[in-house]
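Q: What structure does this chain adopt?
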Amino acid sequence: MSAYSDAIQAGHQRRGEGRHAEGRAEFERALSLASNDDERGNAHLQVGWAFCAEGQHLQGAAAFERAAGLGGLEPQQRSQGQFSAGHCYWHAQRHAEAKAAFEKVLSLSGAGPWHKSGALASIGHLLTGEGKPRYREARAYFERAVKSDGAHPHNVSDALSMLGNLYWWESADRYWREARAAYEKAVNSPGGHPHHQSHAQNMVAHTYRHEGNYAVSLEEFRKTLAMELGHPHHKSEAQLHLGIIYFDLQNHPRAREELGKVASMPMAHEDSVRRAQDYLGRIKA
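A:
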């Protein structure tokens, strides 16, 4: 192997041992040994990821942008650098810089389709964080992510789930149908992330409860519990709401049975456990 490859391998070994600063030093040594833009770009990316692992996000962003700026680097590697820079800025709470970095991914000729769909969804999240006045604009970015050619399936399920959230948060009374449609698409999105899908499944159930269709809502919450890879927090939320619906229907024995299961669920969300205990305290023995 070349001296460059030796340094890259040593850097990965150090990082694998949790010695990120030492790993970064090896990647920086590799950078000094690089003979072309591909090698320089790879070294910059590795330096950036090492900085991120140390929590030094602005330094990581600078390294990633240096990779993105190498004209001789493969376009997908450049878009990887630009996309990663956006996330570093985001972690550093530099939202304007993050959005600008993600926008650069979209304008980069030959950018990787996964990076493009991820950038679109990320901009949508940033706009969502600015509040209701930006919801319409955020929805447009999430819709573009869903329709983006070659989009990563996880970006699609994230975008669909967020489309549902934005309709629901803007006005559940006005937009529950639109929210449900988006959530159902997220649940059924091929290759979607299980955690996006379990959240969306819970929200489908909430839309039925909102319209007063308790029987269907119960069945939809049970679907979350049956999702093998669903997030434990979403499962405990589903179990909680099974109990709450039976409580609202004044079927207190069944409510007690369902609510009593929440605390023993693996990795149950502490808020779900607390609320279940509150409701159990309201049921007469």
